[in-house]
Amino acid sequence: MATGLLALLDDVAALVKASAASLDDVPTQVAKSTGKVSGVVIDDTAVTPKYVVGLDPSREVSIIYQIAKKSLINKVFILTPVALLLGFFAPWIITPILMLGGAYLCFEGYEKVHSMFSSHDAHGDSEDELSVITPEELEKTRIKGAVQTDFILSSEIVAITYGTVSDQPLVTQIAVMFFVAIFITVAVYGFVALLVKADDLGVYMARENRPSAIRKIGFGLIRFMPRFLTVLGYVGTAAMLWVGAEIISHGIPVLHHGLEAIEHALADVPALAWVAKVVASALGGLVIGAIIEKIVTLVRKMRK
């Protein structure tokens, strides 16, 4: 009995040592994973502010908090466990699921581009629709749209993170994926909250009782932030097309090799290579989104 108990304790000690050794590698794997998902993080950061533009400024932080909370719940309690399970039982299905998400991003990005260049009549129709929506309903609609887009981007973040640590021990996989999910959510939505409240900071700095230099900075923020958020909205739309197309290309070797060929052709100028790859991806995403939009329109007509 004593011998068996000692053997069991030895096994437990060995397991603890192995787990501790695995956890020692977590910071390195977190840094590696965070670097790989940086493109998707930029997309998420650029897309989110547009969901609070035009709403009551006093509700901006609350709206961002609600989006962030749902994003964190999705990453921690849905996407991460699902990725771990699929990675163990059916790793082949992860890429097709991500490609569907990429197609959704291309479709949504195309619709936003199309709305920018649509006729005045179309704008008039949308204004009539918005006129009958209460601020509370509009807020709920914006949050729902933001969470849907974030879910796709979060899926990509979780999948890339899993791909980075898939060859690591299970303890390391779990620790890294949960830490990355929490860290990125807090970082992205914390930064977004700072962006959307920067104009309020400008108003505070521009009060009459402030020193002249502080007031000038405040007025500069007030003038700059609306334009910056508008440009960021355009960047977010372009990023949706870019990231969506890149996700799809990972599952289609011909497209993936084409993007790699662009990078290799301009390898001597890394910045230009990156820009060329992004532009090619965004244009490809626009084409994919247009094709999907035509299919969706045709299906809707057939149902009617």
Topology:
Layout lengths: L1 H23 L1 H11 L1 H10 L12 H30 L4 H23 L3 H12 L3 H31 L4 H27 L1 H8 L6 H39 L2 H13 L4 H34 L1
Structural features, described:
- There is one protein chain.
- The chain has 304 residues and is mainly alpha-helical.
- The protein contains twelve helices and no strands.
- It has a domain at 28-237.
- α2 (26-36) crosses α8, α3 (38-47) packs antiparallel against α7 and α5 (94-116) packs across α12.
- It has helices spanning 2-24, 26-36, 38-47, 60-89, 94-116, 120-131, 135-165, 170-196, 198-205, 212-250, 253-265, 270-303.
Would you tell me the structural class of the helices and strands? mainly alpha
Kindly, what is the distance between the CA atoms of the first and last residues, rounded to a whole number of angstroms? 76 Å
Strand content: under 5%
Helix content: over 70%
Can you tell me the overall shape?
A: globular
How many H/I helices?
12
Most strands sheet = none
Report the C-alpha radius of gyration, rounded: 23 Å
Number of strands: 0
Low-confidence stretches: 4-23, 120-130
Task: Calculate the mean pLDDT score and round it.
Answer: 82
The sequence of SSEs as H and E is HHHHHHHHHHHH
